[in-house]
Design a protein that fits this description.
The chain is an alpha/beta fold and 260 residues long. It has one domain: 3-Layer(aba) Sandwich (Rossmann fold). 27% of the residues lie in helices and 27% in strands. The chain contains six helices and eleven strands. The strands form two sheets. A nine-stranded mixed beta sheet has the order 2-1-3-4-11-10-9-6-7. A hairpin with a 4-residue loop joins strand 9 and strand 10. The longest helix is centred in the N-terminal third of the chain and has 20 residues. It is globular and about 45 Å long.
């Protein structure tokens, strides 16, 4: 009997140890809501699409339908505590209270990674000072009228851009006018503005102190977010922000979705 049980106990012990050593899911907080976008659809698109690519666990806080709304999550100074990364997909462009926005910026200033999508770049833009913009790495106050964009890769060698086309047609999106770029930014892709007659960065990384920030102004429509190109990009951006992206553009072991 002992000769039978001992191997079984050894296998069970190895299985328990293996499970204990397995990487835990990335704990992600998605903040979403505001005006002018279909956030009800986008939150589902992002959560499902990225979960199909990464070992990730979501908490989604969605509220507000106007640009003036102050998301209740940010009323708590510890709003980001316990999360590995915050995905911001919000449109609160008319929120101007400096103290309120300071609470939004604080966890990122302290090191919590951020993934910043589309209208988040215009959220809080009228607040005095650059505390929020320093986290974004850019200043943008307006965008061109919706039109077809041709997105061109600038850094094909960067792991975040692994698999992203050299040129990508993004129909009926909004090109945000980038007025200032901090020297902590690494531009990854650009698109040409038909109104401004110049290129604007549309995908970038920002190293704000010890904080990693991935950002893109692309994604006004849910149809854009549903594309594999977009979801793959944001998934790699999340991995980069939490330092779990390999040099080959793939998740480090244990951080891909089950079976990947």
């Amino acid at each position: 009997m002992k000769r039978i049980l001992l191997p079984i106990f050894a296998v069970l012990a190895a299985t328990i140890l293996s499970a204990a050593d397995a990487p835990k899911p990335i704990k992600a907080l998605m903040i979403t809501g505001g005006g002018y976008h279909d956030y009800a659809a986008q939150k589902q698109t992002l959560a499902a699409g990225i979960s199909a690519r990464l070992n990730i666990e979501w908490t989604i806080l969605d509220e507000g339908t106007t640009r003036e709304h102050e998301h209740s999550a940010f009323k708590n100074p510890d709003w980001a505590k316990g999360y590995d990364v915050v995905v911001h997909n919000e449109c609160f462009g008319m929120v101007k209270d400096p103290a309120f926005v300071a609470r939004i910026a604080a966890p990122h200033q302290a090191g919590v990674p951020a993934v910043v999508l589309h209208a988040t770049v215009h959220s809080y833009r009228f607040v005095e000072g650059d505390a929020w913009r320093e986290i974004l790495g850019v200043k943008s106050m307006s965008h061109e009228a919706s039109h077809d964009l041709l997105v061109k890769t600038l850094r094909a060698d960067h792991p975040v851009m692994h698999g992203f086309p050299a040129e990508w047609a993004d129909p009926k999106d909004e090109l945000y006018k980038i007025e200032k770029t901090w020297d902590t930014v690494t531009p990854l892709a650009k698109a040409y503005g038909v109104e401004t007659k110049q290129d604007h960065t549309v995908i970038w990384l920002n190293q704000f102190g010890k904080t990693r920030v991935f950002a893109t102004t692309l994604g006004h429509l849910d149809e854009t977010m549903k594309t594999d190109v977009y979801l793959d990009l944001v998934a790699r951006g999340i991995l980069w922000s939490v330092n779990k992206l390999g040099d080959d553009g793939k998740p480090l072991p244990g951080y891909g979705a089950a079976g990947k």
